[in-house]
Amino acid sequence: MKLLDISKKELVFRSVKAALKGFLVYIVFFIFFVLIQPFERFLGKFNVLINSFLVIFIILTVLAEFFSKTILHYFFAFARDLTIMVYPIVMSEFGMIKFSVENILLTIDITTILFIVILISLISIAKDILGAIDFLNTKFEKELTIAKS
Question: N or C: which end of the chain has fewer CB within 10 A?
Answer without folding.
Answer: N
